[in-house]
Amino acid sequence: MLAQYWWRAGEPIALSTLCRALDGMSSGGIYDHLGGGFARYSTDRYWLAPHFEKMLYDNALLVRTYVRAWQLTAAPRYRQVVEETVGYLLSPPLRLPAGAWAAAEDADSEGEEGRFYVWSRREIEDVGGRAAADWYGATADGNWEGKNILWRPQLGDLRRPAEIEDARARLLDRRASRPRPGLDGKVLTEWNAMAISALAYAGRALDRPSWVEAAAGTADLLLRQLRDQEGRWLRSWHPAMAGPRHLAGAADYAWLVEAFTRLSEATGEARWISEAITTADALIDLFWDHQGGGFFTTGNDAEQLIARMKDIHDGAVPSANAVAALALARLGELTGTPLYEEVAGQTVLALGPALAASPGAFAAVAADYLEGTRRQVVVASADPHLVRPVWSRYLPGTVLAWGEPYASPLWQGRDDAGAAGFVFVCEGYTCRLPVRDASQVEALLGPPRPSTYRAG
What is the pLDDT of residues 204-222, one digit of tens each? Predict the structure, then answer.
């Protein structure tokens, strides 16, 4: 939300606050300085001592956040955190052989919390040398229960000299010989959809097409494994156990709409818009509250409870209603479907009193999107060079259609030979004169908002 607020209002404190928080997390012990990725949360105010469990959803959400920080500041350290965290996500054990993501790695190994991750100063020196022990803030007495959690004492100073990078690789090899924490190997639809969205977004922003391919591969796996014969999405699946049984909830559907929409913008393949539409229609059919607005947590085909609850509060993860509102609004913009934007708007209105009282906790990003200026970019080409100016920027109010045409006002008159190779930049479906060169696309998008915060 801080990134979006800074983009709209230009308040320097918003960006500086965001960067300060991101630097604190990535410099602290909550970040895995050897293998990438973030632990679940910090147990102190300094981001030093984590609860060592590593959750898929935390890392998926943080990848998106660090990508946006890199887009806004061009600071290399944010790109480094993204690359290392995605490296963790795409490696065993979290990346399962089936091609989906496990839910989490445990905090404990050998019966002790954090044992896999902590070090004595002597062991660090023996493996990586004294310079590495100093770099990671290790002391003889340790900084946590007599051992050392690796961290960076210099806030935001993450770029490792060659000597330290060599030491990091040796330390990582030594750590790999330890018994690894247990793995929660179930595949959760919601959390996998979060990761698909994050990798699709990050892969295009950082020009890493293999990440987009991995995201698409997982999406295909979910389509095969986590729907019943009638096409009803299911909540979870464990590759080593019986097939999925539990019905997916509103959060699963909302994140799938978001993931499929991001895949369409990342790949230019029309099939992802089709999947997003099918899932969005089912989300509204199964979960929409026709009297009060917003989405119920469980579907109208699920076991009938005394009361149907609604997930509205943004906590460790965004609420189902917040994700649904933004995903439907963006899909409506891409497809020209009024229903999606109407439902998104009614969802935000239903949360209005709570949103007014605590904006940061109730669908603020969706509300900002719906109220702000929205832009549509159509690239009548499959040439990624024409699309890269859009991918590389933080453009919270912009949707992108390119590659394969699909049924939408955005594509009317632009899916024929006469429009081939042109780029159209529009607001409210009213377009500027088309261009056909990446530098011209840059000019139409306008300069990135200038920052008065020196990100380094």
Answer: 999 999 999 999 999 999 9
Q: Of 153-167, 238-252, 386-400, where does mean pLDDT reach its minimum?
A: 238-252
Return the half-sphere exposure (C-beta side, CA atoms, 13 A cut-off) of residue 168. 19
d(CA 181, CA 149): 16
Largest CA distance in the chain: 72
- Do the beta carbons of residue 287 and residue 295 sit within 8 Å? yes
* C-alpha 28: how far from chain center: 21
* Radius of gyration, CA atoms only, the chain: 23
- Indicate the pTM of the whole model: 0.96
Alpha helices for 75-136 (secondary structure H): 76-89, 121-128, 130-135
Q: Beta strand pairing status for 104-105 and 183-184?
A: antiparallel
The CA distance from 345 to 337, in Å, is 13
168 closest CA partner among 139, 141, 129: 129
Confidence of residue 360 (pLDDT cuts 50, 70, 90): low
Model pLDDT, residue 208: 98
C-alpha triplet 111, 115, 118: angle, nearest 5°: 170
DSSP-H helix ranges across 109-208: 121-128, 130-135, 162-176, 189-205
Instruction: Sort strands 398-402 and 375-379 into parallel, antiparallel or unpaired.
Output: parallel
Q: How confident is the model at residue 442 (pLDDT cuts 50, 70, 90)?
A: very high
Sequence-distant (≥ 6) Cβ neighbours of residue 38 within 8 angstroms: 25, 30, 31, 32, 54, 58, 59, 62, 85
